[in-house]
Write a structure and sequence with these properties.
single chain; 185 residues; alpha+beta; Rossmann fold; nine-stranded mixed sheet; two-stranded antiparallel sheet; 4 helices; 34% strand
């Protein structure tokens, strides 16, 4: 039995984004690959490391209480760009998942204020923070993931837990502050 067969396979996409693993889940056509490509592009623009772990099929394992995602070895570095076909990108064989970006699916949306139990999900017996995103503009979704990771890191360094409600308020206020500052220039 190969390592891929020993792990639990899920319909998802996974990327290394800076020092974090991001698992992107959602129904077919929700924009998982588009979000992954947007995260890779955003990291490139910011000058830090990012790579694809797996697209369309990702294997999850619980390794000492950490969720590890890996891609199918025969598809390493290949991601589907809708209407353009397969694209070759930088890749890594595995990553420790730090957040699950859960896409709603085209034409659907998540509740505006999720319940506390919806802030995490259980995968391979590991509880992982969950960021619910409506399917749509991958660039906006990538910015939301990037901001969530920044806030989570600063909250972790301060020994605090950040709820999705707090994150939503910070995300909205940061956007207002950024637009306000641009108008002042």
């Amino acid at each position: 039995m190969t390592e891929d067969e020993a792990a639990s396979g899920v319909h998802a996409t996974a990327v290394v984004y800076g020092e974090y693993g991001v698992l992107i889940v959602g129904p077919s056509g929700a924009g998982k690959s588009a979000l992954a490509l947007a995260l890779l592009s955003l990291a490139d623009c910011r000058g830090f490391f990012a790579a694809l772990v797996g697209d369309d099929r990702v294997y999850l394992q619980n390794r000492s209480g950490r969720l590890v995602a890996s891609g199918a070895t025969h598809m390493s570095g290949l991601i589907e760009r809708r209407f353009a076909g397969l694209t070759v990108v930088k890749s890594e064989p595995a990553v420790v998942v730090r957040v699950v970006a859960d896409l709603s699916g085209r034409g659907k949306s998540w509740p505006r204020w999720p319940q506390a139990e919806a802030e995490t999900c259980l995968l391979a017996d590991v509880r992982i923070p969950r960021l619910a995103l409506d399917s749509g503009a991958a660039v906006d979704q990538a910015a939301a993931v990037d901001q969530w990771l920044k806030f989570a890191k600063s909250a972790q360094m301060a020994g605090k837990r950040i709820s999705l409600e707090q994150f939503a308020a910070l995300h909205k206020n940061e956007g207002l502050t950024t637009r306000h500052n641009q108008n002042d220039a």
